[in-house]
Amino acid sequence: MPDQPEAITPAQSTTAPATSDAIVVGSGLAGLVAASELVDAGKRVLIIEQEPPVNFGGQAWWSFGGLFLINSAEQRFMGVKDSLELARQDWFGTAGFDRDEDEWGRQWAEAYLHFAAEEKRAWLRGMGVKFFPVVGWAERGGYTATGHGNSVPRFHIVWGTGPGVLTPFMRKVRLGSEQGLVDVLFRHRVDELIVENGAVVGVRGATLAADDAARGEASNRDETGTFEYRAGAVIVASGGIGGNHELVRRNWPKRLGTPPKHMLTGVPAHVDGRMLGISAKAGARLVNEDRMWHYVEGIENYAPVWASHGIRILPGPSSLWLDATGKRLPVPLFPGFDTLGTLEHIVSTGYDHSWFILTQKIIEKEFALSGSEQNPDLTGKDIGLLLQRVKKGAPGPVEAFKAKGADFIVADTLAELIEGMQKLSPDAPPDAQQIELEVRARDREFDNDFSKDAQVNAIRQARHYRGDKLIRVASPHKLLDPKAGPLIAVKLHILTRKSLGGIQTNLDAQALNSEGSPITGLYAAGEASGFGGGGLHGYRALEGTFLGGCLFSGRVAGRAVAAL
Ligand SMILES: Cc1cc2nc3c(=O)[nH]c(=O)nc-3n(C[C@H](O)[C@H](O)[C@H](O)COP(=O)(O)OP(=O)(O)OC[C@H]3O[C@@H](n4cnc5c(N)ncnc54)[C@H](O)[C@@H]3O)c2cc1C
């Protein structure tokens, strides 16, 4: 049985020492990893968190627990040949670093690749983290060898998903608090970093009223008092900006066109980006704020936890992807190939949504939903439930969305399906003739075992990978094959998620000022630091690199501060 959250969440400290060795702002994964390293070194840590204890662990608790590893035992078991060189080729081809301020991001990328190839798996396994044996293939690219994407599957799902990644660090922090090394102040919101003689020496902020909101729900911002704490160093691990649509729109890059009018939110409300501005006021340099990672396969959660709560479909490659008008997306914008390329294209159509058309046979094998709560088998480590994935029928949570989700249409005939799509989108009804043309043209390409259609070829080619054939890619078939039905259409929305830029840091996770010099006493980790260096991903990501980036940058920051 996985640990229950209350068993691994430390008690709220009623008082905290006026000074500690380190203050960590934020109890998400990056903050907890940094704090764990400090506890291991016998240091006194104060964790300051604006949310109630129920949110301990931040976004990672909700996450799918996918981790990017290079040449792992799981990959080898699945017949995948990977190497540091191949991963480096993929990373740099994907990142497209091209700015002066990428100087530290590049170095962090190189260091992270070594971590993912050499240390990460053994380090996590040493703390009891295990992996699901079938490695997933995210961001497949579809361009050339030096372009965007993973050449091979590298998405390793942690047994226990997001909570499984967090648990060892939550336990360490809890133990540290029982040993008197850690204090945690929940409902404390940092509003200012205290700067004296050019060094960051502590934090000031407001205490917030108690709140019994459930995990992920927005909590109140009613101030009940103020606080001030000092320490040898402050580590900012406050997450990104994905919950703050205003900031997302303000930072929206020109290259991705006009910011969408309608977006769903893929992160809890606490991902508010406030701490970035506060860090900048203390002299930290923010870089690459226009680099973000939002998804294009968002669906409205029929049981929302936070406002406009969206869930991301992690799609296999077979669904037909149409724009709002019913026109097929261009090559290689197939499901799961190039997230930002697809985003750029969708925004260029002048609409904020697009459509998948698929069959029951495809949904059963190819739809996974990102999020710990959407994968009770993997999160709950329930093998009986897990085995149902290889049986007929879609996983329970996917079926539930099909039945209750506002974005799903199920029909026996194409005409009925199109009618349903038009009804669901009265302001922008897709063109029935165009959809019919696209579906029938695609289906004709299945008359032979070979085809000119790049997506049809990609589907066939994917099944050469054992993992895809087993649980991820449906056997090739025509959409209008009645045996594969019923037909399904899904209206897809843009879903905000990750920030790829943030506080620029050097390889010791020290925050840098506008001259590029380290600010004494100020460190940053996790999404707040663009996962290291102010942007180790560059423009795009290979997936599973966000939790991994929190693990790596949190560890670097914790170790650096412990060594002071
Ligand atoms: C549904 C979902 C699925 C995901 N799946 C994956 C996946 O499979 N693989 C992957 O690599 N990544 C995944 N991610 C992304 C990953 O979970 C996050 O990028 C990562 O957990 C961010 O961790 P963090 O510690 O940097 O920030 P957060 O988890 O956001 O934690 C920051 C904390 O700081 C607190 N805070 C902020 N400002 C203040 C302040 N001023 N004062 C006090 N406290 C403050 C916040 O309340 C929060 O608790 C997923 C994310 C989601 C939401």
Structural key phrases:
single chain, 564 residues, alpha+beta, eight-stranded mixed β-sheet, 18 helices, 32% helix, 21% strand, globular, binds flavin-adenine dinucleotide
How does this model look, in words?
The chain is α+β, with helices and mostly antiparallel strands. It is built from 18 helices and 20 strands. The strands form four sheets. Strands 1, 2, 5, 6, 7, 8, 19 and 20 form an eight-stranded mixed β-sheet that branches. Strands 9, 11, 12, 13, 14, 15, 16 and 17 form an eight-stranded mixed β-sheet that branches. A two-stranded antiparallel ribbon has the order 3-4. Bound molecules: flavin-adenine dinucleotide.
The span between the termini is 39 Å
| Low-pLDDT regions | none
The biggest sheet amounts to:
8 strands, mixed
* SS strand fraction: 15-25%
Shape: globular
User: Which range best describes the helical content: under 10%, 10-25%, 25-40%, 40-55%, 55-70% or over 70%?
Assistant: 25-40%
